[in-house]
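Problem 3 from the worked examples.
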Amino acid sequence: MKFVAAETLNVTGLTVRKDFTLWILGLDGAIFMIGVIQGMYWNHRRVWVQRVGRDLWIAGHTNKNWYGFKQELNFVLKGTTFSDPEDQIHKEKVAN
C-alpha cells in the first residue's frame, strides 16, 4: 500500500463576531478604577456636631491619618471655648 496524494480543504470551526458590549466593559472598568483610587488615596473623614442640653458635642472619625485629623480638629477649635477632643481609643489603652 502506498500513499499517493490527498486533497485538503481549508476549513475552521471558529466564528468571528463583533462584540457590541465592549464599551460597557470599558466604562465599568473606569468606574471601578475611580472607586479604587478613592478608597486607597483619599481620606474618608466624618465630623458630627450635636447639641445636648446647653452643651455642644463634637465627634469625628477617619479611616487613615488619625493624627493629622486630630491636629486639624485642634486647629479649627483653637480660639473657641471648646476643649480639645479626646481620643477614646487612646483613653481606653491608658486606663488598661
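Problem 4, a separate protein:
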Amino acid sequence: MITEAFRAAAQVRARALGLAEHPVVVIAHPLATRNQGQVRELVRNSLQEVVHGLLSGGPNPSVSLRNEEGPARVPESKKASRVQVQGSVSDINNHFHERGWTDGLPVIPPSEDLVLKMLEASPRSSEQSLGKMPPLNGTATVEKVAVNAVMAGCRPDYFPVVLAAVKAVLQPQFNVGSITTTTGGAAPVVVVSGPVARKLGIQSGTAVFGSGHRANATIGRALRLTMRNLGGATADTMEKSTHGWPGKYTMCFAENDERNPWEPLRVEMGFPPEASIVVVSAARGLHTLMEGTQGTGVAALQTLIEAMTAGGISGYLQERASAFGQAKRPGPLGRPLLAEGVRGSE
C-alpha cells in the first residue's frame, strides 16, 4: 500500500526487485492533513482493493507498478563500465549531471589512471564486493567505490576510510535503504576516531562543520556519491526527503581526542587506543545549542535535555561500525561533568 506521491518510487523499486506485478493499492496523498472521518473514508474506499490483492495474489487491473520507461536496474557487474566522453572538464561534468551521476556539484572526471591510483591505496582486489547497495541493490565493488571517491575529490590516502564507511552503511542493522528513501531526510554522518584522523587532517575542532577541510568534505561526499550512484536513491525517484539538509552532500569529522575527557570512542567500542575506526550514524540535521550560563556540568545537561525535547526537534539516530557507539564531542562541558562523576556512556 502506497500513497500517490510514492508511486514512481515504488515502480522503480519493484522493477529492481522483479516485482512489477506485485499487488498494490494506491491511496490519496497526504494522510497527515486529513481528519479522522476522511481517513476512514479512504480506508473504506481502499478495502476492496486490499482484499483483492491479498486473495488473488495478482495486481489490481487498474493499478500497476510496471514502468517500462523508468530507470533500469542498477548494474550488478563487478567491473565498472567504461564511458568515453570527449570535450572539456565542463563538458564531462554536464554529461555526468545529465546522466544523474553527480550530486549537483562539479566532480573530478574519473579517468582510469586516477582510479588506479585510488585503488593502489587499498590492498583489496578491485573486483571485491562489499555488498549490495539498497534501495536498488547495485553491487558495491572496491573499484566502483574508487570511481566515486575520485569524483568526490578524495586523495588516494583517504580511500581506506571511504571503504570503511561504505562497509559500515552496508551492514544490515544500519538499514541504508530506508535511510536513503525516508521522508525524514536522514543522511550519513561519518565519525573517524583514532590516529588516522590526525594523519589525514580530518578536522575535529574549530569550524568542524564548516568549509575548507578537504578530508572532511571529500570523504563524506564519496560515501554519498557511492550511495547515490550504486543505490539509485536520486531526487527524481527514490529520494523522498521532505526537505533534506546539507548533510545530503557530505558530513564527516573526527573525534576530538585532545579535548575529550572520557575514553576515546574507539576504546568505548572495544578497540585498543592505537586503533582507528570509522563510525557512521544517520542523522536528520544539526541543531545548534548555546550554553554558558549554568554553574555546573549537570545543570548544563538540563539545557541540553530541554533542547532535545523541544517540540519539532527530530530525534533520529542510527549508527553502525563494528559495533554500536555514541559519537561525542563534549568540549568545555565535558570536564565539569567528569568532575561531577558523569561517565561518558551516560
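Solution to problem 4. Residues 316-337 have pLDDT under 50 and may be disordered. Residues 2-56 form one domain.
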